[in-house]
């Protein structure tokens, strides 16, 4: 059975700043794309396996928010690594690494654009 979520979009005001933020904390390279009037930067996707993929999006009507739905990004082996880079990259940790029992650990942060985003890892 497939996962219920297959796509997410994080609104941004400054695409270059947001790309730098996520590249820095996650150790990745977001790839730029466009879709008509939308400016986008795509998170890498593994199309051979189930799971969500998504993008940073700058467009009319897309407004960063620190309330509402929360996207949980893969924190890798141990979410402490990317979480420790959040503040130096221009974000703010708002919930430290927290155990959720047998389901691993989570943490929340505000990204460079003002979105509340989260990390998950098993360690």
TrEMBL record:
Pfam families: Glyoxalase
InterPro entries: Anthracycline_SecMetBiosynth, Glyas_Bleomycin-R_OHBP_Dase, Glyas_Fos-R_dOase_dom, VOC_core
Annotated ranges, domain VOC: 4-122
Name of protein: VOC family protein
Protein source organism: Splendidivirga corallicola
């Amino acid at each position: 059975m497939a996962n219920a979520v297959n796509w997410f979009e994080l609104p941004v005001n400054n695409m270059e700043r947001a790309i730098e933020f996520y590249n820095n904390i996650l150790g990745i390279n977001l790839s730029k794309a466009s879709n008509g009037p939308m400016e986008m930067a795509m998170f890498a996707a593994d199309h051979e396996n189930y799971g969500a993929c998504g993008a940073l999006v700058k467009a009319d009507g897309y407004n960063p928010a620190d309330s509402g739905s929360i996207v949980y990004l893969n924190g890798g082996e141990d979410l402490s690594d990317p979480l420790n880079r959040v503040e130096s990259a221009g974000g703010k940790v708002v919930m430290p690494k927290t155990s959720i029992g047998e389901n691993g650990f989570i943490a929340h942060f505000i990204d460079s654009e003002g979105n509340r985003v989260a990390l998950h890892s098993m360690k």
